[in-house]
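Retro notes - structure team

What went well: the batch runner handled both jobs without manual restarts.
What didn't: labels got mixed up in the shared folder, which is why I'm recording both outputs here explicitly, each with its sequence directly above its tokens.

Job 1
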Amino acid sequence: MKNKIEENALPLSKRLQMSKTLRDIFTSQDSHALKIAFDALKSKMAISEESLESDFNRYFIGPLSPIADPFSSIYLDNLDQVMSKSTLKVRALYETMGFTFPQQNQIPDDHIGIELDAYYQLLYIEEVKNIDYLRELRHYFLHEHLNLWIPLFIERALACNEEPSTAMVYILTQLKSFLIRETNTQGVPA
């Protein structure tokens, strides 16, 4: 998803950096991009690109059934299909935010990477551009959408008892911590 914001050379806050890193992990298109994003988490874990990609695919992509599907509709609509009513709801939210999604109809709008990108962009607009008119929408998106399904996604992924991946557990723990921090720092919208 792209908005009309551009990341500049200014250092990002820890909050923005974590949001960007998590987004980059779940939107990575190859093992190299995934490894760069994983390394940005500053884990002391040594893992090869190939092992990281293999674990990531086993957990979230396939070719076999993934351990945890990365689509909100799976968790919100109690269906084993994507592109259901919650997908259309999140698409409407993106339109309200003013975001365009160039891969619409190629990747479901409710993919975790796309949703984390939307959250990152809202936070970026607020923190870097000092524009806070979307703060309430970001608050709504976090509390009424992301917090409804991502904890279930994390729980399902962490329930993996067959050869759990230390790297995936680390990513999921970072995602969980990020959501908790965001939820606790939200307060009431201004």
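Job 2
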Amino acid sequence: MNKKIKKLPETELELMLCLWDAGTSVQRSYFNTKFADKGWSDSTILTMLSRLAEKGFITTAKNGNKNVYSPLISKDEYMQVENSSFLGRLHKGSVKHFVASLADADSLTDSDIDELESLLKQLRER
């Protein structure tokens, strides 16, 4: 990955998650509909979209008289950066420490443990 991907503030991340979930380019009205319950104004959404474009996360193209927004960074690319940052900051880069902290907090169910065992088995078979 050659791109320098920065951590997004929560509100901008919400817009990106919405765009990634759309799976296609969208107009601003798409975001207005998705975030109507938050009470975000058109100008708030436009400001966040402008910031995302400045940061290199999205591109804007004209379709008639409307702007269409498309991601330039994939969800997987962003998640890799976020996961590494999270592990590095809170768990000294150790997946073991992360899982141990979940176990210590009684956050892991038997189902979670079964899923982890299955994932580890799949990873070993690669």
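One thing worth noting from job 2: Strands lie at 26-27, 58-63, 66-71.
We'll revisit the folder naming next retro.
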